[in-house]
Amino acid sequence: MSEHAQLLRIATAGSVDDGKSTLIGRLLFDSKGIFEDQLASIEATSAKRGDEYTDLALLTDGLRSEREQGITIDVAYRYFSSPRRKFIIADTPGHVQYTRNMVTGASTADVAIILVDARKGVLEQTRRHAFLSALLGIPRLVVAVNKMDLVDYDEATFEAIRTEFTDFAAKLEVHDVTFVPLSALKGDNVVDRSEAMPWYTGPALLDHLENVHIASDRNLTDVRFPVQYVIRPQRADGLDHRSFAGTVAGGIMKVDDEVVVMPSGRQSTIKAIWGPGGAELDEAAAPAAVTIALNDEIDIVRGEMIARPGNRPHQGTELEAMVCWFADDSTLTPNKRYVVKHTTRDTKAIVTGLEYRLDVNTLHRDPDSTELGLNEIGRIGLRTQTPLMYDPYRRNRDTGAFILVDELSGNTVGAGMIIGPATTGSNVVWHAGAVQRGDRGQGRTLWLTGLSGSGKSTIASEVERLLIESGHPAYILDGDNLRHGLNADLGFSAEDRAENIRRTAEVAALFADAGVVVICSLISPMRADRDKARGVHSAADLPFTEVFVDTPLAECEARDPKGLYAKARAGEIPEFTGVSAPYEPPLTPDLHIRPEDGTAEEVAQRIVSSILGV
Amino acid sequence: MTARTAVTLSHLDALEAESVHIFREVAAQFERPGMLFSGGKDSVVMFHLARKAFWPAPMPFPLMHVDTGHNFDEVIEYRDRVVDQTGVQLLVSYVQDDIDAGRVVEETGVGTSRNRLQTAALLRGIQENRFDAVFGGARRDEEKARAKERVFSFRDAFGAWDPRAQRPELWKLYNGNHRKGEHIRVFPLSNWTELDIWQYIEREDIALPPIYYAHQREVIERDGMLLAKTRFLETLPGEEARTELVRFRTVGDATCTGCVESDAADNAAVVAEVAGTRVTERGATRADDRISEAGMEDRKKEGYF
Fold it and tell me: Measured in whole angstroms, how far is the alpha carbon of residue A315 from the centre of its chain?
């Protein structure tokens, strides 16, 4: 392995007897990740216990009580490498305390491997692990369909599992799923391609892990630098050095960039960037640990955030989040106080509400629940004592994540993923009797339609930013994000797509009624559905602007930012707009945007000018 | 001109960044951290990384050596040279002091070592210096109990590790909460492997004690391991010393740290050798890990690092 190899972090998941330990053992063994003395040691233990074969699980079960009971209690980290990559596997237990451990192991993973026993197919456990992987924002799933040797290497069995899982994953907004039929025991398609499955044309598992493209997972757009530590040497030789150390959490920071320090709002420019030990750099991106100096004397302390003036994180004390509860001796209940650790900032917080508890097996939401117990997941409201500077977790795992710490014991009791600011807008609607629409400012809906990859979301973000900067309340309803929450129960059938648009239009109208400029960013392929959305608004006498982001299919496909077209062409995504499902372009859009109209910023400026008349 | 960037990171860059983040987190969260330093390759790399993390300021914590008294002379010379050259503060906690004061009893006979006695000297050193965080150079790939250890490992007032009550550790968020008397062991090299360490030593051109490179030495073969013939090693009747070309993969108590036959005389040769080895460094060179399958776990529960 060269020193320039890339690091890939993997989390494994699977149920009890699906052969996970055997698979890890096989990967380690065949890639020389198991050493002779380790093997001799587990062979001796297996023999002492009277096992008929060497139990590779002993490799990862490192604690006395695990080996004695033959169960895995806690996450273990394993390491192996190939010529191109170094792999860190977080081996998470399948059964005991599954959620807490899976969440722990998955929080930093680039790829999740979910094992499925070919004889049993997609189980509740499989769905749970897929859901947790999606919740934790792991960008890529590998479904390892194991024990193919026990189903005679039958293609139909594999295809049935692939279809069933794909249908389920569509609801989770997990797009990048790869399926590998294998036998961990026999070594089929693990490190080497199997001759027993000539119908499978994809790569062996290790080959896939070596080549999966991970660079695009990083957020290189939004500059985020949580200040971790101030470096100010006190030296007799008069060295005058003052710099801010931290780990880049997003974007590409460059020397001479204009920056804003939050929450003070003071602005300056970057004077210098140094890597560890003082190596001068021109630019840095996540997850580089660097030190920066600014051109102006600004008082900055740990817990503050450096961003770009035109692209700031959210700042506030009221937010909503998904939380996984870890404590076995206490529950999460509304009005309880905790310490929040978020980026480099610690602050006190109070749980303002539990919106629902989620059953991770059925995805059923229980809005009547009053607490979260060990391993339970729910959506909460949180009020912090000092403002947090954050992004939604889906946009940035580093600035969107936090842990909850018990004030008394100091223990970590929960893991949180921020959804966004608390939606107080609904209160305005409920108490509308005392307020007239004219009192609230002019709300309206901008409806962006276009193919996947046409640039809708980028334009929407710019429009939102321009509006907020000019003092207009604005909010994006993004098709992807809505499918995470409001429309999480919907798939991609024609009926579900229509329902997706209907709900979004109703929500948009409520926002617009509340005085917010709503930017809806959805493919919304069918003319009839978009017309109904317009109808909802005109019935409520609210302005509605249809914006056609008219990027040709070939260009969208060439961009393919999420790799979806490639998958659709490979037949892995059924019903993909533009490829295997129709798109009906608007006949008379209110605004027509073509690629030659300029950058997203320029287009956004034009849209904002046209609707605000500025 | 090529841009100097940290936009694409190699695995060594990524590991370095993770370790640097951990050092800074500890310096920010704790009042009195200290760093264990033995002169062994892992603690040398850890020290190198810590100094880089706070550049151009000095590293904001002292080193502490838990000295069994059974050292390789080359390692103590190296340790003292590093202290002289860098101006860092070195504290030493001597196992001999505990023996002399009757706080621990030294086992006698062939095959005994002072390794286990280190725990008392370590805990005493932590208490005397009022450390609330102690860096150790342990890696998860070294040993199966260590594969289960957190980066921030909570230790109670007795310094003990409870593997079943570890704090979940997610993202880059490290929880350093503790009460008076308790402390946190911090392992910035958790995700490094032996090969990563050597590749980094080669890349950064870090100086190590000479015993890490091939040299002629008098050794005694015992239980399939080559032990250095030193003034500390008791020999059995019939054990004959012979001279071999060897090097050390780990450095610890001279009575229980074996060496391996090797002709790897420089960093590049060692990297090549480590990349091809089929035996772990502990399996090859640590007699004390062979005591029982849970030897490391048991010692960690007592307060070992």
Answer: 20
Q: Kindly state whether A290 is in contact with chain B, defined as any CB-CB distance less than 8 angstroms.
A: yes
| A84 contacts in chain B (CB < 8 Å) | none
Q: Is the CB of residue A231 less than 8 Å away from at least one CB of chain B?
A: yes
B residues 16-75 near A, CB within 8 Å?
16-18, 20-21, 24-25, 27-28, 49, 51-58
What is d(CA A19, CA A16) in angstroms, rounded to the nearest whole number?
A: 8
- Asked if the Cβ–Cβ distance from A229 to B166 is below 8 Å, we say no
Give the span between the Cα atoms of A178 and A162, in whole angstroms. Answer: 9
Under 8 Å CB pairs connecting chains A and B tally to 215
> A69 contacts in B (CB within 8 Å)?
none
**Percentage with pLDDT > 70 across chain A:** 90
What are the tokens at A41?
């040691």
- The per-residue pLDDT for B105 is 84
Strand order in the sheet with B5-6: A252-254, A283-285, B5-6
With beta carbons less than 8 A apart as the criterion, state whether B35 and B19 touch. Answer: no
Among B4, B175, B279, beta carbon nearest to A405: B175
The pLDDT assigned to A430 comes to 37
Say yes or no for a CB contact (<8 Å) between B9 and A287.
yes
Which candidate, A511, A340, A492, places its Cα nearest to that of A428? A511
What is the rounded CA–CA span in Å between residue A373 and residue B270?
51
Inter-chain CB proximity B24 and A402 less than 8 Å: no
The sign one gets for the Cα dihedral A384, B19, A410, A359 is positive
| Nearest alpha-carbon partner for A209 in A182, A236, A230, A248 | A182
- DSSP H helical segments within A76-142, as ranges? 98-106, 124-135
Residues of chain A with pLDDT under 70: 1-4, 16-18, 32-35, 52-73, 93-98, 424-439, 613-614
Identity of the residue numbered A372: L
**Structural tokens at position A162:** 């692939």
Cβ within 8 Å of A, B 200-239:
200, 202-203
Are A100 and A136 in contact, with CB atoms under 8 Å apart? Answer: no
ipTM of the complex in this document: 0.90
Q: Tell me the two tokens of residue B162.
A: 């409870």
Model confidence band, residue B147 (pLDDT cutoffs 50, 70, 90): confident
Task: Find all residues with CB under 8 Å of A289, minimum gap 6, and list them.
Answer: A245, A246, A247, A248, A275, A276, B16, B17, B18, B20, B21, B24, B53
Mean pLDDT, range B30-52, rounded to an integer: 95
**pTM confidence score:** 0.78
